[in-house]
C-alpha cells in the first residue's frame, strides 16, 4: 500500500513539474501585447469607420456636358456665355489667385462660385484649367456648372467650408467638433490620396499636381464639402507625363526650394551655379508621392489617436520619402496601405 501511495505522489510530482509555466521573455510579451492591441484596434475600426459620403457628382451622375446640384431633379447643360452674363449675380469676392478671382454668387437662388480671369496674360493657364475641369468631372473634382472662354469666366459649385487650409478652424466650430476625431481625419487622408491616384490614372493620362510648392499652396487646391468629402478645385497646373515616349514635366520655370518639394525638383548643381531652367532636369508624378506624408500629417492633426495612425502609416510614408523617385510607391499602393489600416 505504501509503495502504491508513493508511486502516486511521484506521478503527481512529475505532472506538477511538467505543468509549471515557462517564463515568457519580455520582448515576446511586448510583441503579444502589440498584436492584441492591433486586433482590438482593427475591430474598433471595423465598427466605427464609415466610408466618406459620395459627392453630388457621384450620387447623381449626369452625362458629359451636363450637371445637377442641390434640389435639381434633372440634368441641365452647362451654362453658356449668355446665361453666365445674365443669370448669375455676384455677391462678394471670396478669393483671388494668380489666375482667377473667385466670387460667391447666386444662380436661381443657389449659391455658386464664379471665377474670373485676372489678366489676359494668364488666359492660357485659365483655359488649361477649364479643359481639365471639363474632362475630369467625377467625385474627385468640383462640379462644373458653366463656363465662357470668351469672357474668361467659370462657374462651379460653391463649398462654404472653403479650402483645406482652414480645416482646423472648421473642426473647432461647435457644429463640427464631433467630427474632430482621428478616424474622421483618416477618412480625409484616404480621400486626398484617392484624388492623387485619380489624377495619376486619369482619362487624360498621368497628371501631376504642380501648384504644390509648399503645404499652404497644396491645401489651397482642395475644397472641403459640407459632407466632409474633399474635391480638387484648382486644375490650372496639371501637366501630363508620358513615360512611354519619355515625356516628363517641370512645375514652372522658376527655381523651387524647401523640404516640401521632392528632391528631384531642387536645383541639382549647387548654390554656386546660377539657376538655369534649360538645364533643370525634368521629373514625373512621383513628386506628388513625396508630398503625401506631409499633407496626411496635417489632415490627421493632433487629436487623440492620431499618433497611433502615424505609427501604422510609418512604413508606407518612409517609402514615399525615398530620395530615388523610382523607389517610391505608386498612389494606388499608398491608397491600398491606407485602406488596410
Automatic annotation (TrEMBL):
Catalytic reactions of this protein: 3-O-[beta-D-GalNAc-(1->3)-beta-D-GlcNAc-(1->4)-alpha-D-Man]-L-Thr-[protein] + ATP = 3-O-[beta-D-GalNAc-(1->3)-beta-D-GlcNAc-(1->4)-(O-6-P-alpha-D-Man)]-Thr-[protein] + ADP + H(+)
Lineage: Eukaryota, Metazoa, Chordata, Craniata, Vertebrata
GO biological process: protein O-linked glycosylation
GO CC aspect terms: endoplasmic reticulum membrane
Keywords: ATP-binding, Endoplasmic reticulum, Kinase, Membrane, Nucleotide-binding, Signal-anchor, Transferase, Transmembrane, Transmembrane helix
Cellular compartments annotated: Endoplasmic reticulum membrane
Role played: Protein O-mannose kinase that specifically mediates phosphorylation at the 6-position of an O-mannose of the trisaccharide (N-acetylgalactosamine (GalNAc)-beta-1,3-N-acetylglucosamine (GlcNAc)-beta-1,4-mannose) to generate phosphorylated O-mannosyl trisaccharide (N-acetylgalactosamine-beta-1,3-N-acetylglucosamine-beta-1,4-(phosphate-6-)mannose). Phosphorylated O-mannosyl trisaccharide is a carbohydrate structure present in alpha-dystroglycan (DAG1), which is required for binding laminin G-like domain-containing extracellular proteins with high affinity.
Positions of the UniProt region annotated as Disordered: 1-20
Protein name, UniProt field: Protein O-mannose kinase
Top EC category: transferase
EC numbers on record: 2.7.1.183
The organism's place on the tree of life at top rank: Eukaryota
Amino acid at each position: 500500500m505504501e509503495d502504491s501511495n508513493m508511486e502516486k505522489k511521484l506521478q503527481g510530482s512529475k505532472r506538477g513539474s511538467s505543468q509549471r509555466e515557462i517564463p515568457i521573455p519580455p520582448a515576446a510579451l511586448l510583441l503579444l501585447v502589440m498584436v492584441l492591441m492591433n486586433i482590438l484596434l482593427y475591430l474598433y475600426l471595423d465598427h466605427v469607420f464609415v466610408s466618406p459620403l459620395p459627392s453630388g457628382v457621384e450620387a447623381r451622375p449626369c452625362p458629359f456636358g451636363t450637371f445637377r446640384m442641390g434640389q435639381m431633379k434633372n440634368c441641365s447643360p452647362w451654362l453658356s456665355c449668355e446665361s453666365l452674363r445674365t443669370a448669375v449675380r455676384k455677391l462678394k469676392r471670396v478669393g483671388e489667385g494668380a489666375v482667377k478671382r473667385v466670387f460667391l454668387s447666386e444662380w436661381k437662388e443657389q449659391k455658386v462660385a464664379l471665377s474670373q480671369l485676372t489678366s489676359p496674360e494668364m488666359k492660357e493657364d485659365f483655359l488649361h484649367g477649364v479643359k481639365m475641369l471639363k474632362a475630369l468631372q467625377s467625385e474627385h473634382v468640383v462640379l462644373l456648372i458653366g463656363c465662357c472662354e470668351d469672357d474668361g469666366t467659370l462657374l462651379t459649385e460653391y463649398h462654404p467650408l472653403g479650402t483645406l487650409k482652414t480645416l482646423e478652424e472648421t473642426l473647432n466650430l461647435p457644429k463640427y467638433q464631433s467630427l474632430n476625431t482621428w478616424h474622421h481625419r483618416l477618412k480625409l487622408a484616404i480621400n486626398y490620396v484617392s484624388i492623387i491616384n485619380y489624377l495619376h490614372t486619369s482619362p487624360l493620362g498621368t497628371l501631376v499636381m504642380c501648384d504644390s510648392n509648399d503645404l499652404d499652396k497644396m491645401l489651397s487646391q482642395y475644397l472641403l464639402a459640407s459632407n466632409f468629402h474633399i474635391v480638387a478645385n484648382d486644375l490650372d497646373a496639371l501637366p501630363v507625363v508620358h513615360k512611354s515616349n519619355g515625356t516628363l514635366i517641370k512645375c514652372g520655370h522658376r527655381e523651387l526650394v524647401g523640404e516640401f518639394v521632392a528632391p528631384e525638383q531642387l536645383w541639382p548643381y549647387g548654390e554656386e551655379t546660377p539657376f538655369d531652367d534649360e538645364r533643370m532636369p525634368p521629373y514625373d508624378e512621383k513628386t506628388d508621392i513625396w508630398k503625401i506624408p506631409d499633407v496626411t500629417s496635417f489632415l490627421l492633426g493632433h487629436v487623440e489617436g492620431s499618433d497611433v495612425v502615424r505609427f501604422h502609416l510609418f512604413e508606407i510614408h518612409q517609402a514615399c520619402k525615398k530620395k530615388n523617385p523610382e523607389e517610391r510607391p505608386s498612389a494606388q499602393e499608398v491608397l491600398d496601405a491606407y485602406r488596410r489600416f
